[in-house]
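Methods — Computational structure assignment.
A single polypeptide chain was analysed. Its primary sequence is given first, followed by the predicted tertiary structure written as structure tokens.
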Amino acid sequence: MGGIHSRKLRLVINKSFAFCESRKANIWILWLKQSISVIILSPSKPNNTMSPYMAEFFGTMLLILLGEGVVAGAILKDTKSENAGWLTIVFAWGLAVTLAIYAVGRISGAHLNPAVTIGLYLTGNFPSSQIAGYILAQFAGAFAGAILMWLHFLPHWSRTDSQSVKLGVFCTAPAVRSLPANLLSEIIATMVLVLGILFIGANEFSTGLKPMIVGALIIAIGLSLGGTTGFAINPARDLGPRLAHFVLPIPGKGSSDWSYSWIPVVGPLLGSMLGALIFNLLFT
């Protein structure tokens, strides 16, 4: 019976990506196809309806759909929430994180972020054997979430002239382009994120309250430290949607700004390591 379900799932995955592969044999499409196959077909965790990898995929997809959805609504042309502003964006990202944690936290721990996965590993709270699977699921989920967001706002891409605005819906860009300063901003913001998550984990809260506290942490980081680079603080949140921007047929989209793309990947990873180091040295 399991073999029949597996064959059906593979057939669905193959058909879903056939149109992309017929138009251009893009390595990122092939990678995503393989990634989703591995995630969906991986064995479920006992007493749960999905595997932790599938949970990370779904949670990250939900996070990106809602988080980038608010950005799209605020900056694309002719939406009802156009010009909603930075406060709206930051609060909605915090709520998106909260909902995603409620959705899959009991299954996978809801890392939703390679920087969190690395930070938890370095502090002895996560096994090395699951790191690759979690990170793969997070990147694939972010890619899928960006595609859903693109579909949701489909009529508004052609109404928006600015290439930078279209790219800004998918991924981050600095307010002032200075790569050393931008890298430092991402390192500091992600260090605070990892430390904050570890501090929250070290305290007892009422059942179901922790996701709200983590969401408040995201809002605090966004309001205090997000004005420089848009606070990616998550390699999957930036690179996955940037890849989606690269492959999707968005009218007049322009460049995906690959010269900056390493900053919101390397910065959060370094910030995660620094946060874990500080926690290990001072708080354990």
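Note: The chain is about 70% helix and 0% strand.
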